[in-house]
Amino acid sequence: MAKARSSFYCTECGNETLKWQGKCPACGAWNTIVEQPAMEGKKKAAAVSSGLGARSPRPMAEVEAVDELRFNTGMSELDRVLGGGAVKGSLVLVGGAPGIGKSTLMLQICDNLCRFSDVLYVSGEESERQIKLRAQRLGIREERLYLYSETNLDDIVAAVQAKKPDILIVDSIQTIYNGDSSSSPGSVAQVKECTMALMHLAKGIGVTVFVVGHINKEGSLAGPKVLEHMVDCVLHFEGEEHNSYRILRAAKNRFGATNEIGVFEMGDQGLAEVPNPSEAMLSGRPENMPGSCVTCVMEGVRPVLAEVQALLSPSAYGNSRRTSNGFDYNRAMMMLAVLEKRGGLALSGCDFYVNVIGGLTLDEPAADLALIVALASSFRDKPVPFDLAAIGEVGLTGELRSINAVNQRLSEIRRLGFTKCLVPARSSGKIIAPAGLNLIRVGNIREAVAMLV
Questions:
Q1: How many CB atoms lie within 10 A of CB 22?
Q2: Quick one: CA dihedral 156, 157, 162, 163, positive or negative?
């Protein structure tokens, strides 16, 4: 009996090798080489799934170049992240942790999509009865919505070619398997091949495909890294387990920006949109409590206010403890060192804790000054004024640098009722302060700490 052939490839970059190696020769990642059995009939399956057969090259002059056809999903927050709505014939991958609300989000958009199109909802995790019970609880309309509980890729492709739906939802890609492959469902090879077949469906017959995917313990999408290169749009659904707010973020978008976010709140009736995330993030903020400061960050073209909290306490052990949640750890450590060296505060003997309320992740330098103010407030045990916000980038010498979109940030800060804002003394453009907002200009962190706390 002939030995079954196998191939090896990297789950990070998709590079194929003849044998297993500890380090990928292409991207340099360690322990990412996996084995998969060689699959027969791979080209045949791709051709059948596309439904087009062989095609010939076309001159570029004969290709019609018109604007992509977009349609609303019924959720403005999702449309914002997608760049103004879903694009016909696109392949969208929605990833998130188990129980975060991916299936609920996909089922809820069916309520609006069924008004003008046929939707085929394929589930490999739930039965058709379970899906209907959840749809009734969410108040989803049943007209033009077709349910199909199946995990075999060939049967799913046959159902799509028979029903010819306008929109296909697959929940989830880790449960779908290709019968031509001997590997188990959910393996790297199966995820790659099934996604490739769905991509042929989307591009071949013009059906819009939403694919739900799980994430691994590292927080990245399960499956090969090449999976993210195959799809048109990658959305990450994020949120804390014990927090009702969910954040939808675009990691890749061929039809729009990748720095937009959508905010949802999980309730008894499913996901509810949060049109004013700044107000939601600041709800319940305590007054006259040290260690808290509000900043404004840009998520795409939308300014969002976030509360940065810091706690410094004397360390009871030899080594101080450092913890950061929602703020980049390395940048937080840098701000701690700058405040001690340039601000004149002895922080080396203190335990250090930083938290961003609401599940937001702050990764832009405009939040540096708010962290500095919160740290100084906690260290001196003096509260920051409740109506004050702080925006600005902090350098290693303690100076404050200008940031982009200052006027948009100031408008949002004033709209939420703040009357004072701490800003860098130097700015790259003209700053127009809204009526009722007093700007406090400082040149370095020592001036900021002395003026506030």
A1: 8
A2: positive
Q: DSSP of 350-404, one letter per residue?
A: EEEEEEEGGG--B-SGGGHHHHHHHHHHHHHT-PPPTTEEE--EE-TTSBEE--S
Q: pLDDT tens per residue, the chain (453 residues)?
A: 445 567 787 777 667 788 888 888 878 888 888 777 655 444 444 444 444 455 678 888 887 766 678 899 989 999 999 988 999 999 999 998 888 899 999 999 998 899 899 999 999 999 999 999 999 998 887 889 999 999 999 999 999 999 999 999 999 898 999 887 777 787 777 888 899 999 998 988 889 999 999 886 666 676 667 778 889 999 999 887 677 888 898 989 998 888 788 999 988 888 999 988 898 889 888 888 999 999 999 987 889 999 999 999 988 777 889 999 999 999 999 999 999 999 989 888 899 999 998 878 898 899 999 999 999 999 999 999 999 999 999 999 999 999 998 999 999 999 999 999 999 998 877 888 899 999 999 999 999 998 876
Tokens representing 402 are 């200008």
Helix (H, G, I), strand (E, B) or coil at 200: helix
Q: What would the two tokens of residue 268 be?
A: 């008894």
Burial class (CB in 10 A: 0-12, 13-18, 19+), 71: middle
User: Who's near 146: CB < 8 A, 6+ residues apart?
Assistant: 118, 119, 120, 121, 163, 165
Residues ≥6 apart with Cβ < 8 Å to 169: 106, 110, 119, 120, 121, 122, 209, 210, 212
CA distances from 114 to 75, 105, 196, 209 (A): 13, 15, 26, 15
CA 187: distance to chain centroid?
Answer: 23
Q: Which are the contacts of 358, defined by CB distance < 8 A and separation ≥ 6? A: 243, 245, 277, 280, 281, 306, 307
Angle, helix 102-113 to helix 128-138, in steps of 10 degrees: 70
pTM of the model: 0.77
DSSP code string of 27-53:
T--BS-EEEEE--TTHHHHHHHHHT--
